[in-house]
Amino acid sequence: MEWSSAVVWTCLLGAGLTLAFSTTTSMTGPRPPRLIDCVFHHYANVTCRWEAGDTPTTHYTLEVVRGKNRTLKNNSRFTCTTTDTSCTAITNSSVRVHFCISVIAHSHRRDITSHRPCQSGRIEVMLYPVPLNSVKPVRGRPHCLYVTWERIVTVFPVSFMEIYAGDLKSQIEFTAEGQLNVQVKNVTVNDTSFLVCLFRPDTLYTIRLRHSYKGPQSPWSLWSNARQGRTGEDAPSAAPAFWRRVKQTDKNDWRLVSLLWKPLPRFLANGRVLFFNVTCQTESTQILNDHGSCRDLPHTSTSCSLRLPAGRCSCALTASTSAGTSPEARIWLPGASETELPPPEQITASPLDDNSLDVRWTAPATQSPSGFVVEWFAVGENSSILHWERLNSSCTSLVITEGVKPMERYVVSVKALYGEQGAGPNRTAHNYTRQGVPSACPAVETPKIIGSTVKLVWSPVPEELLHGFIRNYILSYSTGNHTAKRVLLPGDVHSCSLKNLSPGNYNISLQANTDAGAGTAWINHVHITSEDISIVMCVLLPLVLTSLALVLMACLTQNKMVKQTLCQYVPDPSNSSLALWKPKIALEDVMIRQIIS
Ligand SMILES: *[C@@H]1O[C@H](CO)[C@@H](O)[C@H](O)[C@H]1NC(C)=O
Ligand SMILES: *[C@@H]1O[C@H](CO)[C@@H](O)[C@H](O)[C@H]1NC(C)=O
Ligand SMILES: *[C@@H]1O[C@H](CO)[C@@H](O)[C@H](O)[C@H]1NC(C)=O
Ligand SMILES: *[C@@H]1O[C@H](CO)[C@@H](O)[C@H](O)[C@H]1NC(C)=O
Ligand SMILES: *[C@@H]1O[C@H](CO)[C@@H](O)[C@H](O)[C@H]1NC(C)=O
Ligand SMILES: *[C@@H]1O[C@H](CO)[C@@H](O)[C@H](O)[C@H]1NC(C)=O
Ligand SMILES: *[C@@H]1O[C@H](CO)[C@@H](O)[C@H](O)[C@H]1NC(C)=O
Ligand SMILES: *[C@@H]1O[C@H](CO)[C@@H](O)[C@H](O)[C@H]1NC(C)=O
Ligand SMILES: *[C@@H]1O[C@H](CO)[C@@H](O)[C@H](O)[C@H]1NC(C)=O
Ligand SMILES: *[C@@H]1O[C@H](CO)[C@@H](O)[C@H](O)[C@H]1NC(C)=O
Ligand SMILES: *[C@@H]1O[C@H](CO)[C@@H](O)[C@H](O)[C@H]1NC(C)=O
Ligand SMILES: *[C@@H]1O[C@H](CO)[C@@H](O)[C@H](O)[C@H]1NC(C)=O
Prior knowledge:
- The protein is mainly β and 597 residues long.
- It has five domains: 34-124, Immunoglobulin-like, CATH 2.60.40; 132-230, Sandwich (Immunoglobulin-like); 242-333, Immunoglobulins (Immunoglobulin-like, Sandwich); 346-431, Sandwich (Immunoglobulin-like), CATH 2.60.40; 443-528, Sandwich (Immunoglobulin-like).
- It contains eight helices and 39 strands.
- Strands 3, 4, 6, 7 and 8 form a five-stranded antiparallel beta sheet that branches.
- Helix 1 (2-12) packs across helix 2 (19-28).
- The longest helix has 14 residues, at 547-560.
- It is elongated, with a radius of gyration of 46 Å.
- The termini are far apart.
- The model is unreliable at 1-27, 532-553, 555-564 and 572-597 (pLDDT under 50).
């Protein structure tokens, strides 16, 4: 039978084949279809897939025989027919019984049948999704949730006893509130309520459940309905970032100290913080009784103040939730007489954009710090607003954005921390993210006119109105139809005399100039009546005695020269130089060059 069918099949291939080839083929025989797998649905159907054999096939029949012996004629038989390689037979029977499955490949001349051993339908069952009833927190176990589902007897072909025995494989899918990533984890389910302990405290989770029957051939059920549950609170896993500011020291060397801390981020708080607890002690571990405002600190507080004695002391901070207290954060305040600790070596604060500054520093070379604190504030801003950040010792840069705006001058300082020795002195940088022009003019006193001299005295533009680093002042004056004359004065000069002015009406203006440009101008009109009085004022620095003669000569020369107008000012002695301080006898453009140089 087998031999003759092989001969028929080889003839079908055509006459062109060699004898050798047809002999080989006839030796192996045709390959039957191969069942890949089946999926059973309880009291519904079974779907099987197979691979085609190597004979031309017109269609297939899937035959499903209920029972353990496919040849018994009185067993229930279910079939489906297809030209494809999978089909679904309606069984309408429990999956707990055995099924014998065969695929029959039909061709014009003969049928080829492939069998597989009879086995329980449950091995390949796809369970129905179960109803998920509740997801609840577990008292005292903030990482766990208690999940309850329901076994509906009529549709769930695994008994309670089998569930207790561990015949289910299960997975949960969960998403934490506000997070996008969905996680799927294997869980052990030996009952219709079970504990899962892989969560974060105080977090709302959305959960779904799915099962499969033990063994690798049962596919996962569809996911259950979703339920939400929140894990219980835990004690905070870390203390808040803690820092201090010494505000003032009184005559007995007691220090008024502000203690500062940051709210705990959610992932460290593990619940709702109920209160903070601050305790300060002296070096001899004597707890200080004067708590200042540091008593009964509510969850909203981020600072408190108290007085600390002159000696070395330390303060500790903890945060508490309903479930417990965090580890403590401690800061040390060295006594006034203790040796100076090294500051960071270099600091720069460069703008990245309008709202951020890149702060970089170098760790002290002589002693390695345990960390750093970066503090910053805008000049002129309410001085009780101090921004700060604590960093570990491996950080030597920080991008600051909190409270950072363009056209404000920031004072950025870095201190190194040395564990129990406390914090070292600061190193400070000033900078702007973007400079602007001054929004106010210099406050000039009423000009004093003495003969042909106009004396101007002004106070600097307040730093918060400058919006940039002052580079110089622009003084200009004009009379009649003459073009205005401009004089540039260094930014640290705050007075100037215009001398030997011809009689007439003058417009005088003064502007502060930053890197971004000149700001609002102060403008004044003066009238010079007499041209006879010509007092030459030469302001001398007493320490530059050698230049005295020179100056006198200069003054004399000036008297003889064609009447010149010039501006004299008293430089700040701290940064005066001879170049700047040369008596100004030359024409204005010369003087300007001197000033700029
Ligand atoms: C088989 O049964 C399942 C479960 O009742 C059903 O969802 C599916 O549609 C059925 N398949 C076919 C082809 O009838
Ligand atoms: C199936 O039934 C047939 C006929 O009754 C019998 O000959 C055969 O041994 C049975 N096979 C098995 C595996 O029980
Ligand atoms: C089927 O037939 C066998 C013997 O032929 C018998 O033992 C068996 O009880 C029958 N089964 C049913 C369900 O009738
Ligand atoms: C399935 O079988 C039950 C009884 O066993 C019957 O009541 C029901 O009508 C059957 N359903 C189908 C779709 O054949
Ligand atoms: C399920 O497992 C847990 C822990 O492994 C055990 O405490 C519990 O008794 C088990 N339940 C059943 C019904 O076996
Ligand atoms: C989860 O279970 C499946 C099947 O039981 C297994 O293949 C897989 O490796 C398991 N995954 C993990 C992460 O244990
Ligand atoms: C605050 O901390 C101190 C010292 O650790 C402790 O004695 C006190 O009971 C704490 N207070 C509260 C309200 O927890
Ligand atoms: C201020 O910023 C400029 C860049 O705009 C930078 O070159 C300079 O070094 C910064 N100054 C300080 C003190 O960091
Ligand atoms: C500064 O701010 C604090 C709190 O932010 C406020 O109590 C105080 O009155 C402010 N002072 C000024 C001068 O604005
Ligand atoms: C220091 O802080 C950085 C950034 O916060 C972190 O990546 C690093 O692991 C920390 N190093 C140590 C030693 O804690
Ligand atoms: C830096 O230290 C000096 C001297 O102790 C102090 O006057 C100044 O206010 C400090 N600057 C900052 C920004 O903390
Ligand atoms: C100023 O110029 C105007 C015309 O531009 C002329 O009429 C006037 O006489 C001039 N005045 C002086 C003081 O030169």
